[in-house]
């Protein structure tokens, strides 16, 4: 369904077998290293930088750098149109995806159509870490999305050969796990007002990482004080039905809560998808269960 | 707070530095390899078996086996009494734990005391994968518990030197992530009846892995047909208050739902914590949202 823009005319060169104590064999294809054209914030760029910075013995650093170039060559770049579902639950899980740009929602459905959005992803996020043999979720583009796509077998092979990549995949899974556990508390124990205020502050944090997140209320030195969020505007990525499916609420409750927040002077609304923060401290206290 | 039964009188020998293409240096301590006395289903045994079976070049296999022996020596064995909280949220995350025997609940609390149990763990499960610098959960023993405990720095060091371990940690994080996403659907979209029936079938699955799980309703060849669960009894690991905090319900709703199931002939109750399955197919249909 997704439009695949393959970066190779010919089939990709075979991957070297996993590192077994030998220096990895370079196996460069015909396509230049700049196949990402420097535009995509994709996995390999970050790892490449890390490999260059890490104090690895020089032979090993060169080997890992070459394998990362290799990874560039066998990475497909996929463009997905807004609203398109590019992974369906119970399909065979053949790929890992990394979001290069745009926003993606992952969701699961119950047989009668009830739906729960399990994650909202943005640039740099992985898709598919939790899949077993088959995908256990649907993935849909919330707007135009660019993805980097790599076969699971190839990724496993690379992860064995590139310890930096193996560690990055593990860190990513652990980070997602922590976030998922935050959301268990939200869905299991927070009120509708607490859920909606958490969501609004999460959107702001995703838009500007210097804004404190209610999920991690410990303030780092680089974070703005919460009162400084007054006057900031956030653009919501999705309609009320999706917000309801993300927060485990009905659409009516979501709309009612937005209206209540507006009437209480906590936020102002500009159309359906723009929200300005007026009383950010009160929203943060609500979101963290302090009110 | 937990009673530590250190397996070493002297400080553990230093870990070798991460594998950097050299064969790992063996660095055996004074304590015998059987420090687990074969009793604990702990991490190293499994990996050891895997290392022996894997077709690694012999020098590498020997290296990894020696490092695994090393890991045995620096693993502490901890006994925790029933009801004891052995990890507190916001403590510095210094250790990874693996449950050797017994059951553990992980939970988070909101400032006013509302509580959400985020995971129920048993033998072989990891604790601490999702922690950042500090633990983001409390861990409490549901009965007498044995744990294997290893410093996070030591574990990271071993994971770099032992690819099998690195992969196992990643698989574990991905498996927990998948389970956590299942629970998002439960908390966000399932009714009380659906949640309680899911919980009962989960308990049965944890007790006997040949019983199908509502979280993974695809039947594997080794699973019993659901009708064959009739007459099986499950012992619940925790009181109604904990079940409520796990399922995002009130205690009253949990008790009412148990009573309703009993009156409808779906289950019978033997005291507070024993449940016999009478109509397992109906419970499975409820749990998977087919009713």
UniProtKB/TrEMBL annotation, chains A, B:
GO terms for molecular function: DNA binding; DNA-binding transcription factor activity. PROSITE patterns: CNMP_BINDING_3, HTH_CRP_2. Residues 9-24 have a biased composition (Pro residues). One of its GO terms (cellular component) is cytosol. It holds the Pfam family cNMP_binding. InterPro entries: cNMP-bd_dom (IPR000595), cNMP-bd_dom_sf (IPR018490), Env_Response_Regulators (IPR050397), HTH_CRP (IPR012318), RmlC-like_jellyroll (IPR014710), WH-like_DNA-bd_sf (IPR036388), WH_DNA-bd_sf (IPR036390). It comes from the Bacteria. Keywords: DNA-binding, Transcription, Transcription regulation. SMART domains: cNMP, HTH_CRP. Residues 1-24 are annotated as: Disordered. Residues 190-281 form the HTH crp-type domain. This is Helix-turn-helix domain-containing protein. It comes from Formicincola oecophyllae.
């Amino acid at each position: 369904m997704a439009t695949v823009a393959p970066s190779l005319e010919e089939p990709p060169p075979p991957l070297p077998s996993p590192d077994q104590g030998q220096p990895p064999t370079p196996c460069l294809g015909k396509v230049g290293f700049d196949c990402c054209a420097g535009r995509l914030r994709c996995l390999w760029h970050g790892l490449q930088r890390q490999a260059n910075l890490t104090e690895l013995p020089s032979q090993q650093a060169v080997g890992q750098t070459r394998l990362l170039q290799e990874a560039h060559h066998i990475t497909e770049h996929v463009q997905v149109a807004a609203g398109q579902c590019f992974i369906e639950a119970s399909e065979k899980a053949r790929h890992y995806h990394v979001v290069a740009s745009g926003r993606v929602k992952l969701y699961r459905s119950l047989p009668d159509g009830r739906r729960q959005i399990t994650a909202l992803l943005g640039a740099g996020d992985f898709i598919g870490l939790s899949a077993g043999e088959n995908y256990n979720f649907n993935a849909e583009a919330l707007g135009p999305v660019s993805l980097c796509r790599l076969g699971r077998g190839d990724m496993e092979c690379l992860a064995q050969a590139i310890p930096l990549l193996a560690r990055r995949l593990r860190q990513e899974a652990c980070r997602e796990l922590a976030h998922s556990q935050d959301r268990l508390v939200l869905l299991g124990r927070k009120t509708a007002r607490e859920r909606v205020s958490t969501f609004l502050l999460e959107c702001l944090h995703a838009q500007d990482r210097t804004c404190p997140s209610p999920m991690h209320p410990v303030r780092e030195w680089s974070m703005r004080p919460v009162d400084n969020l007054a006057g900031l505007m956030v653009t919501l990525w999705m309609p009320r039905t999706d917000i309801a499916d993300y927060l485990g609420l009905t659409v009516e409750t979501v709309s009612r809560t937005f209206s209540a927040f507006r009437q209480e002077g906590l936020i102002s609304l500009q159309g359906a998808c723009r929200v300005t923060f007026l009383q950010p401290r009160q929203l943060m206290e609500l979101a963290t269960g302090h009110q």
